[in-house]
Amino acid sequence: ILQTTYFGVCVLTDLVWLLPQHGKRVQRLCLRISALQDWLFAALAFPIGFFVVVSFWLLYAFDRELVYPKILDQIIPTWMNHAMHSVVLLLLMLELILVPHRWPSHKGGMAVLISFCCSYLLW
């Protein structure tokens, strides 16, 4: 859900920039959405996405029954497994390399990441 939200914000940012009239109001909206996009990427989407992909494949390599039982192979095709658990990292790495981001401060980024993780665990 986090990755979908992030890439949805990316699409929204691009669509707003494509609007034919760039008045002050639209420019401010674009800057705010771009700032939100940068924060989401730096503080949540990249670190959590990277962690989830790496931890999934490490657990899968050691004992796949912990994260993806063999019975699921009959239901979910192999390509879908990779689409869910590999492509995310590829897209994040492409985003990291191709898109210039304004990075938040380390304190701010860590505060957002820790708050999100604590909220997720307490939920």
Account of the 3D structure:
It is found in: Endomembrane system. This is Androgen-dependent TFPI-regulating protein. Its main location: membrane. The structure is a single chain. The protein has one domain (2-122). α1 packs antiparallel against α2 (24-63), α2 crosses α4 and α2 (24-63) crosses α5 (106-122). Helix content is 76%, strand content 0%. The chain is globular, with a radius of gyration of 18 Å. The model has no long low-confidence stretch (mean pLDDT 91). The chain has 5 helices and no strands. The protein has helices spanning 2-17, 24-63, 78-85, 87-98, 106-122. With 123 residues, the protein is mostly helical.
Shape: globular
End-to-end CA span:
15 Å
Poorly predicted spans = none
Fraction of residues in β-strands = under 5%
Rounded to the nearest angstrom, the radius of gyration is 18 Å
Quick one: how many beta strands?
A: 0
| Count of discrete domains | 1
The amount of helix comes to over 70%
Structural class: mainly alpha
The major sheet is characterized as:
none
Average pLDDT, all residues: 91
What is the number of helices?
Answer: 5
SSE pattern: HHHHH
